[in-house]
Amino acid sequence: MEIDSVKFWGNVRQLSNAIGETPYEQLADFCLKALTLPVSNAVVERVFSIMNAVKTRARNKMQLEILQCIIRIRVHLKEVLKSCCIDFQPSHDMLMSFTSQMYESTRNPKDLGTPRQTSNSTAEGEDLLEMITLFDNDNESHDCL
């Protein structure tokens, strides 16, 4: 009989005695947090590997926003669409949206000389975690990237 660890510790967390105290709440919280730890750092290493392939010496002034977008596209192609950038075929709608309007700046012309502010460090950390979760499957090759 197989027991789901998350359900087990979730049930243990809710156990209470006659006066309504939950004596195992802290233990269960600790165990649930321990279950979220990664078994290896291969996923994180893969994200950094992709980042290093994208942000080369020639592209060292790339803003964080652009870097995140390129990494997301590569991950989506490989992990979700199961294809490579060489095999990608844009849809008709994509081709129709390639107009001169896509080059119009949304920034204030006064701000063009100043660097764009990126999101705060908490949001950047959340973005990194989101990218890492896209790499959950460690068994697939990533030759395309």
From TrEMBL:
Which residue numbers delimit the HAT C-terminal dimerisation domain?
24-73
Q: A Pfam family this protein belongs to? A: Dimer_Tnp_hAT
One function term, GO molecular function aspect: protein dimerization activity
Q: Which domain of life is it from?
A: Eukaryota
Give the originating organism.
Gryllus longicercus
Which InterPro entries does this entry report, sorted A to Z? HATC_C_dom (IPR008906), RNaseH-like_sf (IPR012337)
What protein name does the entry list? HAT C-terminal dimerisation domain-containing protein
